[in-house]
Fold this sequence. Notes:
Layout: E1 4-8, H1 11-15, E2 23-28, H2 47-64, E3 65-75, H3 80-90, E4 94-102, E5 117-124, E6 129-130, E7 157-159, H4 179-189, E8 195-198, H5 205-212, E9 216-221, H6 224-235, H7 258-273, H8 277-291, E10 318-319
Parallel strand pairs: 1-9, 2-3, 2-8, 4-7, 8-9
Antiparallel strand pairs: 3-5, 4-5, 6-10
Helix pairs in contact: 2-3, 4-5
Amino acid sequence: MSDTRIIHGNSLELFSTLNSRSVDLIISDPPYNLGKDYGNNHDLKGFAEYLDFSRMWLSQAHRVLKPTGSIYVFMGVRFISYLYDIMDRDLGMFFNSWICWHYTQGIGKKIGFSPRHDDVLLFNKSQKFTFNLDAVRVPQKYYRARNNMRGANPGDVWKFSHVHYCNENRQDHPTQKPEGLMERMVLASSNEGDLVIDPYAGSGTTLRVCQQLNRNCVGFELNPDYVKMTKERLSKPFRGFDSIDERMERVPFDLRDKSIREDYLKNHTKWFLERHNGSIERFQQAVKELYGDTPNLGDSQASEPSLFDRVRPDTSQRQGLRPSEKTDISRSNERLPV
Length: 338
């Protein structure tokens, strides 16, 4: 059972209550300084003031991260390069990925191109960090004996739709993020029982995801109404995450051999659709249309050996560490090339 809590207060003040090198993962969706109304405060600071604010909370984030820890930071186009510079040059962190979250809904422009993405920076505190690729793979397009049918790397362009206003999980918050988006970050960069911090918890998506993935999570939130809303959200029954990468539902082509196809299909749900109950029916329909089968996915959690087990690498690892080194983490002063 995970320990999931949201605390009312200023993030900078609450950061000071955390011990140095105590946090495994930080997922931060700070105000973008676009003038949005967050109920009891407005997201609007002067340019220099906003950079000072960003530098202060990022310095605290760097302090509390473990040497093997990582941080994901959402940001709009105006300030994303400045945050990169703070983490790279000022804090000496190690750049990992610049992720593009592509969404299909948003405001429309009559002059200029309508925005359809947000940027997310992933930095690591050192060269030795937690990264679980198996946990976030996406299905292969084709079956090939040489392919790792456990799946492919999802890449750095992630397509998740916004949580639409008609979705039952939609919260009264202007910048709610989809659960499937946060799920990928949590699965990739932490392990069960790890501590995750969200310093700008907002609608509580990170906490809800961590609650279901057995991670301990603490969120900071300035607005007491959002704190109350998040507590109510965490108390509700779980029926599956509210969004998914559409690639998770695709059926690989060329699974012509029936025994191989049946073996793959019984694993697909466990590998790619766990905690996404609404996607299973669509996946079954796609299988039927492609191969004429009605797959029996009831035994997807069974433990009998699979043809695909032999191609699966270690599913939980710290990047760059041999197994004998996993209990003795040392900090590195070398910088990775950007």
